[in-house]
# Entry
Amino acid sequence: MDIKRDSINFGKTDVSRLYRKLLFPTLIGLIFTITFTLTDGIFVGLGIGSDALAAINIVAPIFLIGSGTGLLFGTGASVLASIHLAKKNVKAARIICTQAIIIPSILIIIITSICSIFSRQLAYLLGSSDKLLPYVLDYMRIILPSFFLIVILNVGTFIVRLDGSPKYATACDIISSVINIILNYIFVFKLKLGVQGVASATIIGITIGSTLMLIYIIKYAKVLKYYKLKWTKTAISLHIRNIGYLIKTGFPTFLGEATIAWMILIGNYIFLKLAGEDGVAAFSIACYYMPIIFMINDAIIQSAQPIISYNYGLKKKKRIKKAIYLAYGSALGVAVIMTAFYIIEDKMLVSIFIKKGCGAFDLAIKGIPYFSTGYLFIAFNVASIGIYQAIKKPHLASFFSVLRGFIFLTLCFIICPLIWGIKGAWLAVTFAEGLTTIIIVFYLIRKKFKFLDHLKANNTPTVIL
# Structure
């Protein structure tokens, strides 16, 4: 099998050209990932009903935690492996990448096994009502076992891209998404399998994508090949140490997914209280669309991070700064376009998921324009967090993530509905993100917008991947 690779030199290729070379394949794959995400909701809403749509949103937080775990170790591996490669320490980079796949997969299998045993209790903890419980359990009992595959798929995407094959990583996303769409149609509309069919389609798509990633890493990787780990007492202590480094570096990315999970969780409680199951269904539509802004920003940051991290290892300040400016410009430009589109095309966006005439439809039409006003703040915040992560300032990235996704979000979800009712619930995310943007801008002003004063110029030779 001949896998065509791109010629990528992270230390010498023009930054703009290099950024585009990484971004465009990532965005193409992202389109299919977004399709993958939206397809479940569309088939559930139109093929089963608004209650089933609300039930999927109940399960969404734990799905995002699984996805976030993969992104945590994938981002950590990408940053640390990039720095090791810049220093020509290929063996260390291979070990890091292998650990990033194997160890979290084992942990996720253990955790999801426990969750499966207590699925009913977990459903109620996530905010399910008695009416939604059958749908929630049907979906959860099938989707939980797939979480370790999500970890493999997400970590593998980072490794394959860093190895110099972003197009292959994109192809894996495309194949997974197309299979998911086809099977969703067959299982929901033809075989009438309900939410069980949706969950089964998701698992099959993820299984194929993760398998293709593993095949590449084990058999075809050029630099970041699979490294057989040792399991002696000394080796285990080193594994634990490296996992600590991976978690520390990738934790802000995990927080990004965890904050969405928390937003959905607390939002489900608030909307269920204010408007019942129709409120949760309406909120779920916004939740299906909101990850798009996060995914696009993730694609932007994932494309900039290897450039930033690699050149951070070489201490090339000019190249790092150019990549940072490109990331900010791309993120904010996309956010402006998306905000305008969501406000103008609100009816069309809602009708994709549910039919006109049900209570959830009217609630979503009124709420989504308010909800989308926060996208510009989200873009700036996510870009800032990713940049601080890439230049090895995870403490700052984690602080801003916790601030925006937990502290401010929780306070705004509590306070805003008390002042404006259900309108306040729709605006809670906007206020939380806006407050975080103010804090980040204040910090940047205080630092005079200087990211890299601690670095000294360095002309260390590059490693060509």
The first helix runs from residue 15 to 47. Residues 15-446 form one domain. The two ends are 19 Å apart (CA to CA).
